Structures are given as structure tokens and as C-alpha cells.
Amino acid sequence: MTNNFEFFAGLLCFAVLVYVLKRFLWGAASQALKERSDACRKRIREAEDIFNEAEKQSKEWTEKYSGLNEDIRHIAEKAEEDSVRLLEESKSRTEHESQTMVDNAKLEADYLADRAKGELMSDLADRVADEAARLISRSLDSDEKARLNIVEELLTKINIGAEHA
Questions:
Q1: In whole angstroms, what is the distance from residue 89 CA to residue 107 CA?
Q2: Could you give the CA distance from residue 132 to residue 144 in angstroms, rounded to a whole number?
Q3: How many domains does the chain divide into?
Q4: What is this structure's pTM?
Q5: What is the per-residue pLDDT for 98?
Q6: pLDDT score recorded for residue 14
Q7: Mean pLDDT in each 10-residue stretch from start to end of the chain (165 residues)?
Q8: What pLDDT score does 52 carry?
């Protein structure tokens, strides 16, 4: 009988415990579990939304990036074309300026050469005239007079040549 009594007493205690738990704790525990479940579902939805937004931005950036590569290639081609054109223009301008400088130098050299010839001819004519005057001033014999005539003819030819140069 004690066995039965203990069994029924244990069963009664268990029933009282289940009743007390259900009456006082089951609602609060059930509510806490429901709130926790709802919070987890909310966080999962937020994470999915964030993931979807990240995927969307990733696609947008991928599209922009692919277009960016094309833009970069186009800009690089344009820059290369511009650099070749500028190099050609610079080379042409430099060649033109160089040729102009060479032409001006040649003109100046020709001018200076003509001027130097004129000065040399003038100096030579002065010296010949001085020598002729010295020869005339001394007493001349017939050979010296003939030489003087030759010198005068040479002077005349030199002066004529200098005037034409």
C-alpha cells in the first residue's frame, strides 16, 4: 500500500506541479518564446533585406565598373591619339623654326661675307692707291711708268669688280 500511496502521491505532486507551471509559468514562458521567435524572424528578414540590397548594389557597381573599363580604354586611346598629334605638331613646328634659323643664319653670313669683301676691297684699293701715289711721287723712269699704268688699270678693274659684288 505504501507503494500505491507513494505512486499516487507522486502523481498528485506531478499534477499539481504541471497545473502550477501551466497556470503561472506557461503563459509567460510561451510569451517569451513567441517574442524571441518573432525577434529572430524579424532579424532574419532584416538580414535578407540587407543581403538583397547588397546584391542590388553589387550588380549596379558591376555594371558601372564594366562601363568604367570601357571609358578608361576610350580615354587612354584618346590620350594616345592626342600625344601623337602633339608630337607631330611639335616636330613640325621645331623643324620649321630650325629651317628659319638656318635660313636667317645663311642670309646673315652672306651679308657679313659681302661686307667683309667690300671692306677688304676698299682697304686693298686704299693700299694700292697709297703705293701708286708713293711711286708717282718719286722720279719714274719709263719702266716704272709702265708698271704704274698696269697698277692703275688693276685698281680700276678691282673697283669695278667691287662695285658689282
A1: 27
A2: 11
A3: 1
A4: 0.38
A5: 84
A6: 92
A7: 82 90 82 89 92 89 75 83 86 86 84 82 76 64 72 78 61
A8: 92
Residue 81 to residue 87: CA distance in whole angstroms: 10
d(CA 33, CA 122): 127
Length of the chain in terms of residues written:
165
Q: How far is CA 134 from the centre of its chain?
A: 77
Domain that holds residue 18: 2-164
Residue 123: which of 131, 141, 9, 12 has the closest Cα? 131
The pLDDT of residue 148: 72
Check residue 95 and give its pLDDT. Answer: 84
**Full DSSP string of the chain:** -HHHHHHHHHHHHHHHHHHHIIIIIIHHHHHHHHHHHHHHHHHHHHHHHHHHHHHHHHHHHHHHHHHHHHHHHHHHHHHHHHHHHHHHHHHHHHHHHHHHHHHHHHHHHHHHHHHHHHHHHHHHHHHHHHHHHHHHHS---HHHHHHHHHHHHHHHHHHHHHHH-
Q: How far apart are CA 130 and CA 151, in angstroms?
A: 11
CB 151 within 8 A of CB 131: yes
Whether the Cβ atoms of residue 132 and residue 148 lie closer than 8 Å to each other:
yes
**How many angstroms separate the CA atoms of 119 and 113, rounded?**
10
